[in-house]
Amino acid sequence: MLSATSLFSKAQELPLKTWKGNDRNPLVLYISGDGGFNTFTNGFCASVNKKGYTVTALNSRSYFWSKISPEQAAAAISAYIDDAFKSRAGQQLILLGYSFGGDVSPFIINRLSASAKKHLASVILMDPSTSTDFEIHVSDMWGKPKKRSMDVIAEINKMGNHKTAIILGEDGKDFPLRSVSLKNFRSERLPGGHHFAGNTDGLAATIQKYM
Questions:
Q1: Which residue range or ranges hold the Bacterial virulence domain (predicted)?
Q2: Distance (Å, rounded) from C-alpha 66 to C-alpha 57?
Q3: What are the two backbone dihedrals, phi and then psi, of residue 26, each rounded to the nearest 5 degrees?
Q4: Pick from 10, 25, 105, 184: most CB atoms within 10 A?
């Protein structure tokens, strides 16, 4: 079992950025795409924050630049959640994953500690792929991503009864929504492609419906 000190050090390892909001609202944890804290991520997090939520974003480009395991990521994120909720008794967590962040989120969720997972109210995946391998690939940023070794859809289907939504761009990738077998699942398509036409305010408004 990890000690409190080692758990805290794991949380400190995470490259995080926070937009402070109303602590009476659920805490939003956002896992970015492979672009890290780019214009889209900063704009989207600011848009969610304007609706009154504290948003903490994980920079996937930094954290997953070298391959790590789902267990490593889940342990570090569990430590962060445990620490964050020391001052948020009875509060809820909303987990958002975009692109690469949406790919890895199901694997992380399924490996969260019980103490962290009890806060999880809903999961929203934005424009995910069907496979991942927990490592950033520069080639994926500039061309069509290759199929990786870990099945995202199979992992989504292991997530249980958490309220889950997948948001896709109308002009983006063709994600096989019918393969998702979760009971508490919804999906929506928005105008635009991978960046939802840059309409971060509109995306935030849609996301809020599924929180």
A1: 27-208
A2: 19
A3: -55, 150
A4: 105
What pTM value is reported for the model?
A: 0.90
- Name the residue type at position 167: I
DSSP secondary structure letter of residue 97:
E
Q: For residues 187 and 165, is the Cβ–Cβ distance under 8 A?
A: yes
What is the rounded distance in angstroms from the CA atom of residue 48 to the CA atom of residue 50? 5
Residue 36 amino acid letter? G
Q: Which residues sit opposite 98 in a β-bridge?
A: 126
The closest alpha carbon to 110, from 146, 151, 168, 145, belongs to: 151
Reported as a single tens digit per residue, the pLDDT across 132-162 is 988 877 656 555 666 767 899 999 999 999 9
| Residue 101: half-sphere exposure toward Cβ, Cα within 13 Å | 26
Query: What CATH architecture applies to the domain 4-209?
Result: 3-Layer(aba) Sandwich (3.40)
| Helix (H/G/I), strand (E/B), else coil: 117 | helix
Please report, for the chain, how many H helices and E strands are present, in that order: 9, 9
**Whose structure tokens read 């490259």?**
15
**Interaxial angle between packed helices 70-84 and 100-109, expressed in degrees from 0 to 180 and rounded to the nearest 10:** 80
In angstroms and rounded to an integer, the radius of gyration of the C-alpha atoms of the chain is 16
